Amino acid sequence: MSPPSPSRRSHGWTEQRHGRTVTPAAARDDRMGRGVRQTPSVRPGWRTFGVLRPRAVRRYVRLRFEGSIAGFGTSCGTRVVLGHWVRSPFGPFSDVMLERPDGKRLLLAPTREVADFIAGTYRFEEVRVAPVVVDVVGHDWTIGAPELDVRFTVGRRGPLGLLLRAVPSRLATRPLWCALTDVPARLLPGVRACGRTGGGRREWYGAQDLRPITAATAVFEGRDLGLLRPVDPAVRFGFGSTPRSPAIVRIVTTVQMNV
Predict the structure, then answer these.
(1) Tell me, what DSSP letter sits at residue 9?
(2) Is the N or C terminus of the chain more exposed, i.e. has fewer CB atoms within 10 Å?
């Protein structure tokens, strides 16, 4: 008579099943219907959450511009928009956009690199590379460029400016917050907080303060542009305009570009 087989409760037992050696852990898996475990083949750069799906690949960059945008109209019909950026990927700089009464749009930018970036984001019939100098003393702003002289005075902020200042900066400048505020922003004619621009880019405006422009003068190419007027009709450089009422807005602009 052959000797009795060892008890399954004893340690270290094995047995043969269908030509393979079965350990206690494998036998337990068989009883529970789990069978032989296999590790799925996962391609590099993929992530699994229950099912296999591609990992999101970042194919864009976001550029952040911190500064102010001022806009006003004139009695001759020319509308003027100043961008004054204290921090940007290009360093501090200022630019001026003008839309003439006949609809012709002109950009003045300080360097070719800045001009190419702005012209790739907005629409212009003419682009000029020229120094743009901004001087701020108290409430008075002076902008100088070849054949352009602009001066304006900023007044006291109103309820909308106080409301914008009450929003924490870290929240007000987030693209998601800008997208949420786009709906109420449209109550101001022409104003948008986010949208698509030229070159497949996306843009978000995070407004942090608003103050009215109470007086302005502008001379361009030797011609006095006349008295201060609302921005009417709205400018057409991009998907949105400055507020209809002459104003300066402290803002953080985020531009998303495909790479």
Answers:
(1) T
(2) N
Q: Return the half-sphere exposure (C-beta side, CA atoms, 13 A cut-off) of residue 42.
A: 15
H or E segment and range at residue 182: helix 175-185
Q: Which pair of tokens denotes residue 131?
A: 């120094």
How many CB atoms sit inside 10 A of residue 109's CB? 27
Say how far apart CA 98 and CA 122 lie, in whole Å. 12
Could you tell me the residue ranges of all domains in the chain?
Answer: 60-258
State pLDDT tens for residues 139-167: 999 999 999 999 999 999 999 999 999 99
Closest to 195 (Cα-Cα) out of 248, 116, 253, 247:
253
The model carries a pTM of: 0.76
Q: Does domain 60-258 have CATH number 2.40.370?
A: yes
Name residue 96's amino acid.
Answer: V
Number of Cβ within 10 Å of residue 107's Cβ equals 22
Closest by alpha carbon to 189, among 123, 248, 239, 241? 241
The pLDDT assigned to 33 comes to 47
Contact (Cβ atoms closer than 8 angstroms) between residue 61 and residue 257: yes
**70: β partners:** 82, 248
Decide: 159 and 203 in contact? Cβ < 8 Å.
no
Residues 6+ apart with CB under 8 A from 69: 81, 82, 83, 84, 242, 248, 249, 251
Assign 115 to helix, strand or coil.
Answer: helix
What residue type is assigned to position 140 of the chain?
A: D
